[in-house]
Amino acid sequence: MKQHIPNAITCLNLFCGCVGTVLAFNDQLIDAGYAIVLAAIFDFFDGFLARLLKVNSPTGKELDSLADMVSFGLLPSIIIFQMLELTPAVEYGGKWVKYIAFLIAIFSALRLAKFNLDTRQGTIFIGLPTPACALFVLSLPHIALSKDPIISAYVQNPLILLILTLALSFLLVAEIPLMSLKFKNFGLTNNLHRYVLIAAAILLIVFFQLTAIPLIIILYIVLSLVQFNKLSQAL
């Protein structure tokens, strides 16, 4: 019976992605973002419970990727697509340019397929994890509603949205080593960068709520690059 518990949690991840997709197509982008947050929580706990109960299985691994594709690949693409729908058409692109948003879904699929086969990604990530990309995207509608008109207008600029889409798509499959937040132990020496990231993330969320997510993702990438640069120098 216990072997089905992680898969049930994974299915809740998928359910959140499906509900979020409906919400996004109904222009409820903030609520769609909350669906991503719930999906990310379930995505964390399905792996955690699988390791705790020692019931890892090939089926669970594939199911997890399929759920992630919907919650962290398709749903973020729809959010950006809907945001582009609300902006003036980009010059020379017209109404078709908004479909560029689905590059995130395509590159998420490539990233997830690669992750399942890449033996290097046991303790680290190669490329931006799909949940991190999705969390970045869910913050955009929140930033668009910012009380600061300059920041709000900046995020609602279709050119900025397209640049972000291309940048996130590239990061999903880039050969960049990024740290995993899985702790083998809680010692400070081996986890300094993780602790810095967690502490900074908590402070940023407290002060800026979900609009802080882009800063957290950028900090995550920078700390990872610093960490792995030091490791390569030590070797």
Can you give me a brief rundown of this structure?
This protein is mostly helical and 235 residues long. The protein has 9 helices and 2 strands.
- Major beta sheet summary: 2 strands, antiparallel
**Total E-strand runs:** 2
Q: Which structural class should the secondary elements be placed in? A: mainly alpha
Query: Stretches where pLDDT falls below 50 for ≥5 residues?
Result: 231-235
User: What would you give as the CATH superfamily of the largest domain?
Assistant: CDP-alcohol phosphotransferase transmembrane (TM) domain
User: How many separate domains make up the residues?
Assistant: 2
Output the CATH topology of the largest domain: Four Helix Bundle (Hemerythrin (Met), subunit A)
Q: Describe the strand arrangement of the main beta sheet, using strand numbers.
A: 1-2
Shape assignment: globular
CATH C-level class of the largest domain is Mainly Alpha
What is the number of helices?
A: 9
Q: How much β-strand is present in the residues? A: under 5%
What's the end-to-end separation, in Å? 45 Å
Gyration radius, in Å: 18 Å
- Name the helicity range: over 70%
State the order of secondary-structure elements, H for helix, E for strand: HHHHEHHHEHH
Going by CATH, the architecture of the largest domain would be: Up-down Bundle
